[in-house]
Every structure is written in C-alpha cells, then in structure tokens.
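Single Protein Entry

Contents — chain, fold
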Amino acid sequence: MLRLRDRQMADMILQRISLMNVQLTFMHVCGTHQDTLVRFGLLDRLSEVGIDVRQGPGCPVCVTLPQEIDEVLALARAGKTITVFGDAVRVPGTKSSLMRMKGEGADVRIVYGIDDAVEIAKHEEQKEVVFFAIGFETTAPTTAAVAISDTPENFSILSTHRVLPPALDAIVELGEVKLHGLIEPGHVSAIIGVSPYEFLSKDFRIPQVVAGFEPIDVLMGAYMLAKQNIEGRAEVENEYRRVVRPEGNPKALGLLEKVFKTTDVAWRGFSVIKASRLDFKKEFSHLNAREKYHSILGDVDYSKYHEVAGCKCGELLRGLSTPEECPLFGTKCIPDNPIGPCMVSREGSCNISFKYRKLTSK
C-alpha cells in the first residue's frame, strides 16, 4: 500500500500520461521492476492510461540455460560441494534440479554470497567446493573481486554471469514486440552507467529511461518514455540519478575487465547472443570450473533441450506473453512445484504474479 503522499503523486503522474492520449508498449528488464509493478498494481493502472509494460530477459536465474544447470548437476553427481544462491536450487535442468540432487544425497549448500562459499572451502579443505555464479553485471563484480584475491586451491567457480546490453540488442533485432521504449534496470546501470544503452536509441530510435525501484520511480520512467514518444525523441534519460552515474562504477567495471572475457552463449528463450556471457580469462583458469573439471562437464549436451510442453518461460522472457496466459500457471506450475524458472526465481514474472495476484489460468 502506497503512503498518501505517494498515492497523490502517483495519481498525478498517471493523469499526466492520460492527457497524452497514447497507446504505447514498453519493456523493462529487471525482476525488481516487475515486483514493484505487480505488487503495487501499477501494471493495471498504467494499462488504464494506454501503457502496456512487458517484462523482458531481466531475471538472471530465468535466462540461465538448462544445460548450465546440467553442468552444476554433473559436478554435484561427481561428489563436488555445490554452493549456490537459494533461488537457483529449484531451477530445473533437462532432467533434474539441485534440490532433487540434494534430496538424493548430493552436497548442495545455499549461501548468501560468494564469500560464504570461499569460507566453506577454507574450513573444509578435504572437499572440492564449486560456487555456481549467476547474475548480471550487478553481481559479477563480487565474483571478480574474489577471483583476484587469495582463494583456496579446493575452490572454483562455474560462471553463468550474463551482460545485459547484448540481450537488449537481440530483443530489438528480433522485432517480435513493437516497443516504444525501454525501462532500464537501476542495479545494472549503477555498475555499467548510461552509455552502454545509447546504441539502441541511436540505431533503432528506441526511447530509454534508467529508473529506480520505488513505485514513483517506475511511474516516472513510464511518464518520461511517453513524453519522449510525444516529442519525437529517442534518448537515454536517467531518472535514477540519486544512484546511477553516467559513467557507472569505474572500480567495478575495472574488475570485470581484468577478470572476464565475453563469449557467445544462448539464453533461455533466445538463440545464441554474441558476447553475452562472462567467462574467465586464461590467467584465471585455475578458478574456472569448466577448465578444472573438463572431464566431468565435457559430456553436457547443449543441443538437446526443449521447453516442457506448455511452458511459456521462453516467450515470457521475450515479452510475448504474461504469466496468466501460460496454461501451466497456478495449476501444474506453482512455486513448490515449478515447471519453468520463471516460477522459481524471486525475480521471475510467474513467481511474482503468483505471489501477489494469485490468479490461475482458465
């Protein structure tokens, strides 16, 4: 529930959008934005004034490939100690999940961050500890910071870190949804700054706004995008100036540059997106679980996966569908029994809709 002052401000912003008399489709790429939109009823309020907001590939757990899950499952099956964030434990691979593997006796431990994983390795030297690194540019610097520190020999990292701008390029290039604007994520932008998005406005005439996560932030982002459309502009504006600087975070960017290289990889719901995964540079190969355990991971087949029949996670991540349009939503697919990752992650659109709307498909 919004405070009275915020409700009054929200009503004023929505009224100003209404006076523009627009019919526009925007996309955001952030699970926290989706949480704000659904929890505070802003999707419906914006729809009433002509703004349709879709969620794109803004949930890092959701875009992780089932085959990447299979890699960490193979390591667990081989007796390695797997350390992982809690919302990745139930994400299904092609045949199983870390939760199921844990139930079968695998050593799978939930951690709050990579530092916890390093401590486990230091205190249990007889175990081979692998940290399953998931996240965009927001969390990748913490992985990089650990990589340049003094880590124990029994510790390694399986990186599935993604960088966001190439995925935005893929969304626009696909052209499946006619977009009139992008609401860019505040957390990622705090690291990378504003300039990495500029090519989208320059090359594709897409208005963009970097927005914060409070309801007023998101509404202001929508208003600023609508205003750009009305005025015929296509720029990158920064609504979240209290946190996001134009240059981003130079120290964090320096860490990423030092430790990682970008490689081509598919995302769930997408084909291969060029230069979109952060993999370790050669000098950090001692930490690279794919190098260290090549004999275990070499058999993981990246070519055979197909979405479970009826699951629309791939379409959701491309902005083509809503959770309520999925035939599995709220019936066969629920948080305690997820069919796809969008119902697993706290940033997944299905999980968010189930939590706040509690709707089921008819």
In short: Residues 316 and 322 are 6 Å apart (CA to CA).
